[in-house]
User: What shape does this take?
Amino acid sequence: MRKQSEDIGFLPPIREFSDRGAKWLLEFGENVEGLLQIVASDLADQLDFSQLQQVNQSFIPDNLRKQESDVIYLIPFQSEELGDVWAYLLIEHQSVTSPVMGFRLLFYMVNIWDAQRRGWEDAKVPESEWHFRPIIPIVFYTGSQTWEMPITMEVVTDLPQALGRFVPTFDVLFLNVKGEDAPDFLRHPFRLLLELIRQEDATKADFEAVLRQVVEILKELPEESPQWSRAMYYLVLLIYHRRPTEERETLMNIVAQTLVGRRQIEEVQDMPQTIAEYFIQQGEERGEKRGERRGEKRGEKRGELRAKREAVLKLLQLRFDSIPPSVVKKIKSIRSVDRLNALFDQAATANSISEIEIS
Assistant: This one.
């Protein structure tokens, strides 16, 4: 009776919702297929999504992974001439416009190809047998600002027309989720969620109307469908992250009342509790980690101060036969590493203790 609700609890809750939420959605193959059907249906029909493989992030060099917000897949493209040709899907999520997107994509693509090259070199594959996989770059844009600049290298290259032919060119698939020319997103679980993203800043009445429509369609999915669980989980998270606090109860009631079947209602009602428990836990863990870090830093600082004091005292003992107890007491009371470093330098060159400015 509780199995599906428990499964939902294991889905990864999302912090930094606007950016990470979209990326989380794109880590499921069904949603990737839905995206490709929107931006390039002719291409999607030739891709075998049943063999979709997400590329491990370790595939990307460390310097790139620190910057990336993309999801990378390997997928076979069905070619009549060659059979299956494996290609990369590079899905880049953006919540703000970026004039350098063309460069970023090219940078990612070259790094992906370079990782292939390193693999071939490590495996001693002859260069004559190197065949780089094609890359299909997709920009998934969920921002509200109009994206006006083309996604090309020409935008960031200041060259006379005669030199334009030397600028790298490549096609990019682009979906402006909130754009005025956005396609009809309804009838597919992923597209339903895109419609909610489109309307996340709408008036209360408009958002409620879309929410009712979305849940009505979602309830047609089988209860055991992973797509239902993921879509509903994201829907609840969106309500809790993107809508005003005072709307939450009303919106959750709409979700529960629209669903048919007591089991589904119970599951949806359990979701806010699961989310709340998660954030409470995250807050406690972050607090503990901050406390640990503060404790570690304090411990490190105390250790450094103790070592610096001992170094100054040892140097004074080596240079001068005896040190007045008052000087020892003053040095042991100093709590500045910089001040102790200065004293150490003075102790190395002073002719007597009286020349050292200890106070």
Observations:
- The chain is about 55% helix and 10% strand.
- Residues 1-13, 62-68, 276-280 have pLDDT under 50 and may be disordered.
- The chain has two domains: 3-280, 294-355.
- The CA atoms of residues 9 and 274 lie 6 Å apart.
